[in-house]
Design goal:
Elements lengths: L5 E8 L3 E8 L6 E7 L2 H12 L4 E7 L6 H8 L3 E5 L15 H14 L10 H33 L12 H9 L6 H32 L5 H7 L7 H11 L8 H7 L4 E3 L8 E4 L5 H11 L10 H7 L4 H23 L4 H22 L4
Parallel strand pairs: 1-4, 4-5
Antiparallel strand pairs: 1-2, 2-3, 6-7
Helix pairs in contact: 4-6, 4-8, 7-8, 8-10, 9-13, 10-13, 12-13
C-alpha cells in the first residue's frame, strides 16, 4: 500500500476532547480536522466520515492518563493505531509554543515521516496484573510516608527508640506499650499515626496474597516462575518485570532491553573527546527501580539456598544454569567494582543492567503452554 492511500491521523487526547490533524500523502500539507468529544460515540461519527474516503486509516496518540482504551477501540474497528512514547517525540529546541492543535499536527507530520516510536500495549489481562502490581508499589510508598510521619512526630517530642532497628517486633511492642505523649491530644495524634502504619501494612499483605493468587492463573506465569529461579528475584520482582514489559523475549537482544529500561550510560562525545555520564533513566521506571533493588542481593557470595532450591524445582535445567551463571558473574562483578573504588550505588546499577540481560536470556528459554 502506497503512502498516497494512507491517512496519517495525529490525535491529542484529553479526558473530554480529542484534537485531530491529518497528513495525507508525502506532498500534501498537514491539515487540522478539528476537535471532537472524548467519548467513543464522537470517535465513531468521525470514523464514518473518514472511512468514506476509501483510504487506510493510521492513527497515533501519545501515551498518557487516558490509557489504551482508545487504541483498543480503533483496533477493534479494523484500523491501525500507535500509542507513542512522549519522551521519544522529536522537539525543536526553539519551539516554545504548545497547544493541542500544534501537538496534533506535529504528531501527524512525524507519524507520516516515520519518526515516532510506539510503546508496548498490553492486553486486558496483562494490564490487570500490572494494575495490581502498581497498587502494591503505591501501598509501599504510602507505608513509607506513614512511617516517616510517625517517626517525625516522635522526634519532635524527643521520644527516642533505643533499639537498633525500626519496625521489628521489638520496635512495634515499644510503640504499643511504652510510648506516652505529654498530653491526651498528642496521644490521639500518635495513635492515629500508628493506625496509618498498621493499615498500610495490612493492605500490603492483602495485595501480596491477591497477587500470588491471580498470577498463578496468568498466561505469562511460566515467565514469572522462570525468573524466580534467580537470586534476589522473588514474586514481586518477577511479577513487576513481566507485567510491565510483557514477553521479555520480544526484545531482539539484551542490549535493547537495557537501553529500554534506561540502565545504559548517557554519552556526550564529540571529535576525539568521549564523555559518559549517569544512566539515561528513560523507559519504564517501575522495572528499573525493582531491578536495582534486586541487584543489592548480589553483594553476598554465590549460594543456592533452600528457598531458591524450592523455587527452582519446576523450572528446566537450562534456566537453572543461567540463574547460577548470573549469580556467579554478578557477585564477582560486585567485588571487582568495589575493589576499584566504585561507589556502592554505581556498582549496584551496573549489576542491575547485567541482571536485565540474564533475565532476557531466561525469557528466551521459557515455553508457554
Amino acid at each position: 500500500m502506497t503512502s498516497s492511500n494512507i491517512l496519517f491521523i495525529g490525535m491529542d487526547v484529553h479526558k473530554e476532547s480529542i484534537e485531530i490533524a491529518i497528513a495525507e500523502g508525502a506532498s500534501h500539507e498537514v491539515r487540522r480536522y478539528g476537535k471532537i468529544g472524548g467519548a467513543h460515540d464522537a470517535m465513531r461519527k468521525m470514523l464514518r466520515k473518514l472511512v468514506s474516503q476509501g483510504k487506510s486509516l493510521h492513527f497515533c496518540y501519545e501515551a498518557g492518563p487516558c490509557g489504551y482504551e482508545l487504541y483498543r477501540y480503533l483496533v477493534s474497528e479494523g484500523h491501525d493505531c500507535w500509542v507513542v512514547a512522549p519522551s521519544m517525540i522529536p522537539k525543536r529546541p526553539g519551539d516554545k509554543v504548545k497547544t493541542d492543535k500544534r501537538d496534533a499536527v506535529q504528531l501527524a507530520r512525524l507519524f507520516r515521516a516515520g519518526e515516532l516510536t510506539p510503546v508496548y500495549v498490553p492486553d486486558r489481562e496483562d494490564e490487570a496484573i500490572r494494575d495490581i502490581s502498581r497498587a502494591r508499589e503505591d501501598t509501599m510508598l504510602v507505608r513509607k510516608s506513614a512511617r516517616q510521619r510517625l517517626k517525625s512526630f516522635l522526634l519532635r517530642h524527643d521520644i527516642r527508640y533505643q533499639g537498633k532497628t525500626s519496625w521489628t517486633e521489638a520496635h512495634l511492642r515499644w510503640l504499643a506499650d511504652e510510648v506516652r505523649c505529654p498530653s491526651a491530644v498528642q496521644q490521639i495524634v500518635f495513635q492515629e499515626c500508628v493506625n496509618a502504619v498498621t493499615e498500610s501494612q495490612h493492605r500490603l499483605q492483602r495485595l501480596d496474597k491477591q497477587i500470588e493468587h491471580f498470577v498463578k492463573q496468568w498466561r505469562l506465569y511460566p515467565a514469572v516462575e522462570a525468573l524466580m529461579s534467580m537470586h534476589g528475584v522473588q514474586m514481586v520482582v518477577a511479577v513487576t518485570m513481566v507485567s510491565e514489559l510483557g514477553d521479555i523475549s520480544r526484545f531482539e537482544n539484551p542490549k535493547q532491553l537495557m537501553s529500554f529500561l534506561g540502565l545504559t550510560p548517557s554519552e556526550h562525545s564529540s571529535g576525539p573527546r568521549t564523555r559518559r555520564g549517569g544512566i539515561t533513566k528513560t523507559g519504564n521506571g517501575h522495572v528499573r527501580r525493582i531491578l536495582i533493588e534486586a541487584a543489592w542481593c548480589y553483594r553476598y557470595p554465590a549460594k543456592v539456598s533452600r528457598e531458591m532450591q524450592r523455587r527452582q524445582a519446576k523450572v528446566p535445567l537450562a534456566i537453572r544454569e543461567i540463574a547460577w551463571r548470573a549469580q556467579c558473574r554478578l557477585t564477582q562483578r560486585y567485588q571487582h567494582l568495589q575493589r576499584k573504588g566504585k561507589p556502592h550505588n554505581v556498582t549496584v546499577v551496573a549489576l542491575a543492567r547485567e541482571l536485565a540481560g540474564f533475565m532476557w536470556a531466561i525469557a528466551k528459554e521459557v515455553k508457554y503452554p
